[in-house]
Amino acid sequence: MENKDALAPREEEADVHFEPVIKLTEQVDTKTHEEDEDVLFKMRAKLFRFDAPSSEWKERGTGDVRLLAHKETKKVRLVMRRDKTLKVCANHSITADMRLQPNIGSDRSWVWKVAADYSESPPTSETLAIRFANSDNAKEFKKEFEAAQKTNTALSGGAPAAADPSEEKKEESEEKEEEKKEGEEKKDEEEKKEEEEK
After folding, report:
1. CA distance 116 to 126
2. What is the pLDDT of residues 146-177, one digit of tens each?
3. 151 membership: H or E segment, kind and range
4. Is-contact 91 123, C-beta < 8 A?
């Protein structure tokens, strides 16, 4: 004889079925704003930016650095996205005034200054450093970067990039200071000659 307790749990097969609340049938097109550009160069690298207040390099991300040429204007820009998240960590035009400098102590790394990097809003002036897996990759990047500079300079009519106004003022004041020193030295020499003649 089976002992049936009304409070004892019963063994039942659960047939659970859930209907989705939202049906995801349509695909959304996401635009990267790179659809109208051709990839001229692509290589894996790690990007850093110099943080002036703390005087140290901060990592921006690891991913593929690409040089993209617009199909119509032919202008070339540098774009780099982080792995996995695909967040933009560098986005700027390559201008004639940019100089790739070797990073001290490394033959696989370059440093350069950017007047306006559009990876974040608003655009900011940055000092960037990029490091590659080996020196050959770094040399290849430099070659392509400088070729892109020449392309952009030619497209802008061959005009040299506008100089930084603060640098021009600094140079002018240095020239005036030198002229002033030279004038004072000449005056001192003339006074010495006059005293010797007396």
Report:
1. 7
2. 999 999 999 887 654 444 444 444 445 555 55
3. helix 135-155
4. no
Give the 3-state secondary structure percentages of the chain, helix then strand then coil, rounded to 5.
25, 30, 40
Which residues does 100 contact at the CB level (< 8 Å), separation at least 6? 110, 111, 112, 142, 145, 146
Q: What is the DSSP secondary-structure string of 29-45?
A: PPP-S-TTEEEEEEEEE
Backbone angle region of 66, left / alpha / beta, with phi > 0 → left and psi within -120 to 50 → alpha: beta
Tokens found for residue 55: 């005087």
On the question of pLDDT at 125 being above 90, the answer is yes
How many angstroms separate the CA atoms of 161 and 63, rounded?
29
More confident residue, 14 or 79: 79
CB 68 within 8 A of CB 77: yes
pLDDT band at residue 138 using 50, 70 and 90 as cut-offs: very high
Sheet containing strand 76-82, edge to edge, reads 88-93, 76-82, 56-70, 37-51, 124-131, 109-117, 101-102
Q: What are the distances in angstroms from CA 105 to CA 55, 109, 110?
A: 18, 9, 11
| pLDDT greater than 90 at residue 81 | yes
Give the dihedral sign, CA 104/109/115/117.
negative
User: Is this prediction's pTM over 0.70?
Assistant: no
